[in-house]
UniProtKB/TrEMBL annotation:
Protein name: HTH gntR-type domain-containing protein
GO-annotated molecular function: DNA binding; DNA-binding transcription factor activity
Taxonomic path: Bacteria, Bacillati, Bacillota, Bacilli, Bacillales
Keywords of this entry: DNA-binding, Transcription, Transcription regulation
Biological processes per GO annotation: negative regulation of DNA-templated transcription
UniProt xrefs under SUPFAM superfamilies: Chorismate lyase-like, Winged helix' DNA-binding domain
Alphabetical list of SMART domains matching this protein: HTH_GNTR (SM00345), UTRA (SM00866)
Length: 236
């Protein structure tokens, strides 16, 4: 394995292997790919890594997933498919989420603005803890239009990432805009994350744009600094 490959997050390495399987015809368009358990055994990685790799390929249009059906190859990827210029990931192996609150809300005006909703519209709201190896690593507030929220609400207690659930409902993104900054933990956030109020957090705001150029998701996630890795890569 090259030095460049070793520097990539594990899920990106596995994604690249999957892309090669499609390009060389091992996995053909219309055919099912191996199950999660088979991929875990084949690549000797965690279920979270496999799911994140599949998520990326679903959003790239290479694979497709539907509830109750195996993941299938959608099309052979273009030659210019590559690794993201910005790579960040949570540090840990056994990933899960804990749902704190969810439902429709009228009062989240800033989030509604990011989703280009009117003040009279409701927004669907998820408040969650992101957990790694049994410990909370991030506090997350996630907002989607109600039409999307009604589709994904059954997955709220299980989905570590929203994108596979969106893909299963044929909701796909065109691009993602993120802003990374630092913030200090409030009393509420500190209690949830096991910190002292005022401790520094990595604060990420994300807006996801759908293929029709309308926002489909807005989130704000505050990470414990020791549980988050962020790197920028320019060029190929």
């Amino acid at each position: 394995m090259s030095n460049k490959q070793r520097k990539l997050p594990l899920y990106v390495q596995i994604k690249n292997k999957m892309v090669n399987n499609v390009k060389n015809g091992t996995w053909k368009p219309g055919e099912s790919v191996p199950s999660e358990n088979q991929l875990i055994e084949q690549y000797n990685v965690s279920r979270t890594t496999i799911r994140q790799s599949i998520r990326e390929l679903v959003q790239d249009g290479v694979l497709e997933t539907r509830r109750g059906a195996p993941t299938r190859v959608r099309e052979v990827p273009q030659e210019d498919i590559g690794n993201p210029g910005i790579i960040h990931h949570e540090i840990g192996d056994d990933m899960s989420v804990k749902l704190l609150r969810s439902g429709r809300n009228m009062d989240r005006y800033y989030a509604k603005g990011q989703l280009m909703l009117s003040e009279m519209d409701e927004v669907y709201f998820l408040e969650r803890l992101r957990i790694a190896d049994g410990k909370p690593i991030a506090y997350q507030q996630l907002f989607v239009p109600v039409s999307i929220g009604e589709k994904i609400k059954e997955d709220a207690t299980e989905m570590f990432d929203i994108f596979p659930s969106l893909g299963r409902h044929d909701v796909h993104y065109k691009n993602i805009k993120e802003t990374v900054s630092a913030s200090n933990a409030t009393q509420y956030e500190a209690d949830l994350l096991g910190l002292i109020p005022g401790e520094a957090l990595v604060d990420i705001e994300r807006t996801t744009i759908g293929i029709d150029t309308m926002p489909i998701e807005y989130s704000r996630t505050k990470y414990v600094t020791s549980a988050f890795n962020y790197r920028v890569e320019i060029g190929r």
